[in-house]
Amino acid sequence: MKKFLVLCGMLLCISSTAAIAGPSEGGMYYNDGLDYYAKGEYQKAIDSFKEAVAKDPDLVDGYYNLGSLFEYLKSYQTAIIYYTKVTQLAPDDMETVLKLAEVYNKTGSYDKAMLYADKIPATSEYAQQAAKLKTQIQSNLQKAQAKQIASATSTAKEANKTVINRFSGPTGVAMDSKGNLYVASYSDNSIYKVMPNGQTQLYTKSPMINGPIGLAVDSQDNLYVANYNKNNILKINKAGQIVIFMNRITNPYYLLIKGNNMYISEQGNNTVIKYRLY
Q1: Residue 43 has pLDDT above 50, yes or no
Q2: pLDDT of 189 strictly over 50
Q3: Domain 1-91 carries which CATH code?
Q4: What is the mean pLDDT of the chain?
Q5: In CATH, what number does 170-276 get?
């Protein structure tokens, strides 16, 4: 079998001995295809090779050349059709079997790529190329599987995500014993309440609140606010009454209540304060 189209780096190369001597009608179209290819007129070359195999359905080189041209033009699915036809007419053509494995690998059909690569026996002159290709296929398959897992994980996370977008500059959050979520809204000096059913309402807005950041709730459901710009800690009881709980805290930031203790990060003094609540 004569095959004239092969890849040389990123270019197609032509064999000067590929033309069919004393051609039939199919051979004439085949030779026209060679001429068009030599001129760089790939579409006309494709049309001529198609005419050649239409006139001579057993013209293996015509199918192979079509496969090579379509592969070069990155029309991989069409290349697969013509390479497959070659393997049907010439099952022992391991060069074309290797080409099928390579093209399936390019399209991401790694199972089919491995299937064809495995068909090449150890005694074949293409065995070494097939072995290298199988290593590439396995690596590509592992990367694809890892990407699928990451995508599935991301999709699952998105499905579990609920967005509440009423706030202006949200900072600290805290939750009471009944499952109510409190959100400090720094930009508008407010505290919002998100109830377990998802409804959001303004919990409190007061001139006493200026730059709320950290929030914490104690065992009695009192809410504490790190009032950054006022340099104090506010306490809001269950009835909504606000009092100054601690003063002279320079730029309080985060609050944490653990047991009977409150921890306050004091950004202005680069310290953390521990305060016993009860």
Answers
A1: yes
A2: yes
A3: 1.25.40.10
A4: 89
A5: 2.120.10.30
